[in-house]
Specification:
This protein is mainly α. It has one domain. It contains 5 helices and no strands. Helix 3 packs across helix 4.
Length: 84
């Protein structure tokens, strides 16, 4: 069986998670977080741009529907509207 990667996963593969975490720790961007990491926020904003979402409800609903497919990018759970 031949499997193909989605466009979203191909774009996600362009960004190195180790390099991303290095920059985040260098700038101390996650020093006050409680549960939603910078990587999760980055993936949500990337999804927002690709899906051309116009509201928080569209972003949260779209990520919740595709959560099984986004696990390979490292997201633990879909964000809530108040979190974004």
């Amino acid at each position: 069986m031949v499997r193909f990667a989605s466009i979203f996963s191909q774009l996600g593969a362009l960004f190195s998670r180790t390099e991303f975490h290095r920059v985040v720790s260098e700038h101390r961007a996650e020093r006050y977080i409680k549960g939603y990491s910078s990587w999760d926020h980055f993936v949500a904003m990337l999804f927002c741009q690709l899906a051309q979402s116009k509201s928080l409800r569209e972003i949260c609903g779209g990520l919740a529907c595709t959560m099984g497919k986004l696990r390979h990018l490292g997201m633990k759970a879909a964000p809530k509207k108040s979190t974004l």
